[in-house]
Design a protein that fits this description.
By secondary structure, the chain is an all-alpha fold. It has five helices and no strands. It has helices at about 10, 15-35, 40-45, 50-60, 70-84. Helix 2 packs antiparallel against helix 3 (about 40-45) and helix 3 (about 40-45) packs across helix 4. The longest helix is centred in the N-terminal third of the chain and has 18 residues, at about 15-35. The N and C termini lie far apart (about 50 Å).
Amino acid sequence: MNITLELPDTLVQDKDLTEFETEFKLNNAMMMYRQGKVSLSKGAALANMNIYAFISECKTNEIPVIDYDEGELQSELESLKKDF
C-alpha cells in the first residue's frame, strides 16, 4: 500500500527526499513499536533495517526493547539460578 502525504516544505528543506523517507519510516516504526502495535522484528522491517540496527535506534531513542514486569523478571532469575 502506498500513502501520499502533503507536508510543508520547511519540514524537509535541509534533507533530500530519500533521507527524509528513511527517517520518517524509522520514526514511524519506533512509534508503532513503542505503542505495542508491531513487534520488534516487524518494526525493523517497516524501518527497512535489520533487527540489531533497529534495537540500537530504539536504545538511542530510549525505547525499551526488553519489557519484563517484576514477576516475569523474578521468574527468569529463579530459572537461571536453577541452571547454575
